[in-house]
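2024-03-11 09:14:02 DEBUG pipeline.ingest accepted 1 chain
2024-03-11 09:14:02 DEBUG pipeline.ingest length=115
2024-03-11 09:14:03 DEBUG pipeline.predict start
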Amino acid sequence: ELQLVESGGGLVQPGGSLRLSCAASGFTFSNFWMYWVRQAPGKELEWVSYIDTGGVTRNYIPSVKGRFTISRDNAENMLYLQLNNLRAEDTAMYYCSKDSKGSERGQGTQVTVSS
């Protein structure tokens, strides 16, 4: 059974940093491109970043490029998202997912950016 468990969210001031983690199990993690998606209050789910199976190809939506970094550890079945220089508009529930639409995602971890 597929399991994705996110952690690392919290309340942070603008300009602060967080590191999100996602523990994957129940499937061959190393065979799949992985995504971070987020949903802000009152908004639709949007993909934020993805990474290929080997961690070479990475992509980001323009609003987070240069501030967020996605990475993975295939030996540990872990996906990460380093969030730097956070802004209020980054406030959202963050999910790791096997696809860009978040159809197979975890329970999420809340990121709140506020002074």
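2024-03-11 09:14:41 DEBUG pipeline.report Strands lie at 3-7, 10-12, 18-25, 34-39, 46-51, 58-60, 68-73, 78-83, 92-97, 109-113.
2024-03-11 09:14:41 DEBUG pipeline.predict end
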